[in-house]
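4.2 Preliminary Data

To establish feasibility before requesting continued support, the project team ran the inverse folding procedure on a target of 245 residues. The structure was first converted into the token representation described in Section 3, and no sequence information of any kind was made available to the design step. The complete token record follows.
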């Protein structure tokens, strides 16, 4: 895998260039809001869940029964789970054990919870709670039986009518967020879920910015995914990789 910045050849699946440390995959980036210590704890190549995979049947906190893994990434893994107390399915995002004691990383999980809770709309995925079970820290959120917009787009094209309905739904979600002073900052097809009926739900507020939440990231920090940023934002500074979002 060749780095688009310096031309260095890297192993397939690498996130960062070994030659210049630039991101070489289409991942979320964050430049000024992680400390050097935070960045050093992030993976340099390949998706990593950290720790052992939670097997189906595992129960966290005496409440959440793991059913299956949905995916893994730099921050950890996402599972489909059953909330035994409320008898409903949830998506359960587990933070990597080696990051669980990092105050800045945990603060971002809390931020995602707080900001997502601020926005109540049918086209925004609901985030329920931040939980702890032993040395495992996790977020529970609404489970949607569907696929990401990115996955659907990779297989087929949308008709003009479908595209219009999709864009309207995403815009309504953003309108609801903006009404609460929340800016998503990482809107992309990977962060939009589509169910079988074509309902779109915006998710992942891990990089969101809010004018009304103490401790929210400061304006001026470059955050997002390069392929979905405006040229003006990308030219501010060379981005540094973060797998959030």
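Position-by-position output of the design step:
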């Amino acid at each position: 895998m060749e780095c688009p910045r310096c031309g260095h050849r890297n192993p397939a699946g690498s996130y960062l260039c070994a030659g210049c440390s630039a991101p070489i995959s289409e991942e979320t980036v964050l430049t000024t809001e992680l400390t050097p210590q935070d960045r050093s704890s992030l993976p340099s190549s390949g998706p990593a869940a950290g720790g052992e995979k939670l097997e189906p049947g595992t129960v966290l906190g005496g409440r959440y029964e793991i059913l299956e893994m949905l995916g893994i990434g730099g921050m950890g893994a996402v599972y489909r789970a059953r909330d035994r107390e409320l008898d409903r399915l949830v998506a359960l995002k587990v933070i990597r054990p080696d990051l669980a004691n990092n105050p800045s990383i945990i603060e971002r999980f809390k931020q995602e919870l707080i900001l997502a809770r601020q926005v109540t709309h049918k086209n925004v995925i609901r985030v329920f709670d931040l939980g702890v079970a032993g040395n495992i820290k996790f977020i529970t959120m609404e489970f949607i039986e569907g696929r990401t917009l990115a996955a659907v787009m990779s297989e087929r094209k949308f008709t003009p009518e479908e595209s219009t309905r999709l864009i309207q739904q995403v815009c309504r979600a953003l309108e609801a967020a903006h009404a609460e002073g929340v800016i998503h900052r990482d809107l992309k097809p990977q962060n939009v879920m589509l169910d079988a009926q074509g309902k779109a739900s915006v998710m992942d507020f891990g990089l969101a910015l809010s004018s009304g939440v103490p401790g929210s990231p400061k304006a001026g920090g470059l955050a997002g995914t390069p392929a979905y940023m405006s040229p003006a934002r990308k030219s501010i500074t060379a981005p540094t990789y973060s797998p959030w979002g």
